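Task: complex structure prediction.
Instruction: return structure tokens for all chains below.
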Amino acid sequence: MDAATQSRSRLAARRFMRRRLAVLGLFMVLLFFVFAYLGPSFYKWKFEDQNYTSSLQGPSVEHWFGTTQNGGDMYALTMRGLQKSLIIGLIGALISTAIAAVAGAAAGYFSGWTDRAIIALIDLLLVLPGFLIIAILSPVFEGHTWHIFVLLLAAFQWMITARVIRSMTLSMKEREFVHAARFMGVSDWKIILRHILPNMSSFLIIDATINVSSLILAEVGLSFFGFGVQPPDISLGTLINDHWQSAGTENGYQFYFPAVLLVLLVLSVNLVGDGLRDALDPNAKVGEQR
Amino acid sequence: MGKFLLHRFVYLVVLVVIATSSTYFLAAAALNPRSNFEGRNPPPPPEAVDSLLDGLNLNDKTPITQRFERWVRGVFQWNLGDTIDSGSVNEEMGRRMGVSLRLLLIGSILGSLGGVAAGAYSAVKQYGIPDHAMTFASFCILSIPTVVLSVFLANSGATLNNAAGHRIVYNTGEYTPGLTEFSRAGIADRLQHLALPSLVLLLQGFAFYSRYQRNSMLDVLGSEFVRTAQAKGLRRSKALIKHALRTALIPMGTFFAYEFALIFIGSIFVEKIFSWHGMGEWFIQSIQKNDVNATAAIGMFVAVLVLIAGFLSDVVTVALDPRIRRS
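Output:
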């Protein structure tokens, strides 16, 4: 890393740190990770524990988030679900941004038939709502791991970003450094990967962050109907599916703990995304005026 | 202009045809209607299952292209096939479309109009207290999944009823059976049922549209033609509405088109939580019952919805953008 890029990222970091809400969001996201992955090892109960003698107990020192009908510990279950939701959001966002980057840049760079084919695919996928298609396909990946589910989620998330990247590539491929690289005989894909995409890295970072929260929401929606994460795996979506009917009763804690944590998680990720946009995007209005 | 719209329309129809066919193939390949009979005790004779499935055009022993051909021939005769319970898909769809329409209409229209108005206002008064409040509120609402928001509002409704001591809103179903439909009591009853689910859709539409409209309005407000309009002596309000807002609405058309499919997805959750028997609920049931024809019909319904919304947004763009109109 040379001096110029270093100072640029330091500048961005400084601008990010100035946004108090964004820093709070980042802190919360890190906290969620720590609690989800390290929390359970310092806790008395495991998520698979079922203690029929203590069913449906409210939150207490013994069971922080109370217990379920089967005497499962709600805190252990929620942390387990949080793990899955976090990892699905993270991996899915990376895959989706990667697809968007490659497809969008290829469409913009090669133009002609490649461009037309990718645009048509984007339009088609925008007409077919991802939720419906993944729900229809759910019997196929039922009983398999959640990896296929993540791939499917990412496959329906990249389209709008790809469009933006395409138009950015269209203007960028006329710039001198791309011409220079082409005249030096650098191959097309190498130009895309080494010269064009790194030049939109801030956009890609922002997009990936925002995708994390969209994917977490999509996961919850599909798992709520049993079309996403399948038992024995647990996610925040399956927990909400299992317990939403308790919401109005005295056992409402079973719904509210995972639901409120979910909202806080999505909110924190969105705050980080907003802060990154202001810090990295020189054209962002808020960043300019402060 | 006519040529542009015609071109767009043909393109959208082609997309709908491809989308609907893909939905049929995916549903026919992924769903297994035969499994509905496998768990029964005593197991029905295979020949009986075969002939039943043949009659419904659901037999997985028939090649998928043949089943598709038969289905397409039906669609051209305005017949979407049979449900797995040997009912008519057309009839079921007609009934449920009405339910979904009544559910979605008020909430989504009020939400999008209110959102656009609020977003534009918020941009004009940027960094004022209403702007901060609105931005913060829509930021929070967009972070709440539809399921959680629906469950939360359904419970708040129950709490409200308890606090008031009598029933103000209902949180399950579409209406109370037994009331005359067009009497005053009947309509009031329907509105009581409609209030909470509409509020979910309204809040989400409001949050979504106000956010985008604010951004798009901010982009326009700094531009020179707005300043020119004011310099020419137009009143500020007129310059803002006729010049700024009009331009800022153009990019919203595209959002509107794609958001339309999402409204349907949102209604799946709302129907589930508030027990309405509309298209969304039907979609879930169809997949759970391995009902290929019904699933394909719903896929087609959504694709046509997106087509209508997409075409409307093109019409709006043409109406608002003189550059496209003249070309």
